[in-house]
Specification:
This protein is an alpha/beta fold. It contains 16 helices and twelve strands. The strands form two sheets. A seven-stranded mixed beta sheet has the order 1-7-6-5-4-2-3, sandwiched between helices.
């Protein structure tokens, strides 16, 4: 390990594992009032000392901050920390995960270009590609998740972007990153984007397999406390620079306090992931043994269709467990209303265990037939496991299952 003296004021990683880097990477301890923690810079603009200072900035001889939409010291520290954890050259933060996705897509897509995504992508990502992008004259192809042949065949001369999610929401399907690597090698001009929100840099690092860009909703596991909104895009400086130019125009920036909350959340990121990975497989196995549970979807289970792929490329499988209970809609309501510890709420990856019923929450605006066509059955439940004692979580689920 580098000495404290050498590390002070140095933003480069320590060369340690992800647990230590989560605490220290990206920050320069003691540079501001000898503070240990990263200060929150609540300023919208930055003062130039004189005209020489302006000229040094505009001629790019001096790299500094100018205006809040173009960056902030607290934001920069969070970006540097996250880039180290992801193994990326650089990072750009946004005000939400969807802002990161839409801004990235609009950077590389233009009239006449083509984008590919999968049918199991996040609902809003799928809607943006399927319903919004055609209005800009952009073609889209939606392929079945896991159908490698279909994805390879879908790439055309005008394909500019392939955007995938792994693991997916809510079925936790896993993309074979070895296939992604081969596809990238064959089509180097296409920008390959992986939404790794469910995977996190603790459990997987898609850039190591050839992904150009990795996207996260930092609202989830990275922040980890259900108290901030944010998104991140990570990758090479060239691509991130282009996205930054689009962001500066569109304005989807994260605020300084949100950046601070992300830094604080990342301090315990590794510890939380260890806990949630362990609890995830424990709860998944517990649910699979329950007679009133029809099926459990968790990549750590051998029953999951992508278990072998997940086992090969993931360190752990996360804290989201999706399962289908064997009952009618009334039984589902009795189950949900009987929960005491697990709270009914959207989102995931935080300290509290949350339960979502996709049919009545995420897809409430879809007709039943359309929901079923998408695989959203009436009895489908998505559980995001928090950091509570796993025995308490299982006891809550067992008690609710008895009410069906």
């Amino acid at each position: 390990m580098k000495s404290e003296k050498k590390r002070k004021g140095n933003y480069s990683p320590l060369g340690c594992g992800i647990t230590t880097e989560s605490v220290h990477a990206g920050e320069a301890h003691g540079l501001y009032g000898d503070s240990l923690t990263q200060p929150v810079f609540l300023t919208s603009t930055y003062v130039f000392k004189n005209t020489d200072d302006i000229e040094a900035f505009t001629s790019r001889k001096n790299r500094r901050f100018e205006y809040g939409r173009y960056g902030n010291p607290t934001q920069q520290a969070a970006e540097r920390k996250l880039a180290v954890l992801e193994g990326a050259e650089t990072c750009l933060l946004f005000d939400s995960g969807m802002s990161a996705i839409t801004t990235s897509l609009l950077t590389f897509l233009h009239q006449g270009s083509h984008v590919i995504t999968t049918d199991d992508a996040y609902k809003k990502t799928l809607l943006f590609c399927d319903k919004w992008l055609p209005g800009f004259g952009i073609e889209r192809t939606i392929v079945k998740m896991g159908d490698s042949a279909a994805m390879a065949a879908a790439i055309k001369k005008n394909t500019a972007v392939v955007i995938v999610e792994s693991p997916t929401n809510p079925y936790l399907n896993v993309l074979d990153f070895d296939f992604l690597k081969k596809l990238k090698k064959k089509h180097p001009g296409v920008v390959f984007i992986v939404d790794s929100t469910f995977g996190t840099p603790y459990n997987q690092r898609p850039i190591e397999y050839g992904a150009d860009l990795v996207i996260h909703s930092v609202t989830k596991y990275l922040g980890g406390h259900n108290d901030l909104m944010g998104g991140a895009v990570l990758g090479g400086a060239g691509l991130i620079g282009k996205i930054a130019a689009t962001q500066q125009m569109m304005g989807g920036i994260i605020d300084p306090h949100g950046s601070y909350l992300l830094i604080r959340g990342l301090k315990s990121f590794s510890l939380r992931m260890e806990k949630q990975n362990k609890s995830g497989i424990d709860v998944a196995e517990f649910l699979e043994a329950q007679s009133k549970v029809k099926r459990v979807y968790y990549p750590g289970l051998s029953s999951h269709p992508h278990h072998c792929v997940a086992k090969r490329q993931m360190k752990g499988f996360g804290g989201v467990v999706t399962f289908e209970i064997d009952c009618d809609t009334k039984g589902v309501k009795r189950f949900l209303n009987a929960l005491r510890l697990c709270l009914l709420a959207p989102s995931l990856g935080g300290a509290e265990s949350l339960v979502s019923h996709p049919a009545s929450m995420s897809y409430y605006d879809y007709g039943r037939e359309e929901r079923l066509r998408l695989g959203i059955t009436d009895g489908l439940i998505r559980l995001s496991i928090g950091i509570e004692a796993v025995e308490d979580i299982k006891a809550d689920l067992a008690g609710a299952l008895k009410k069906i």
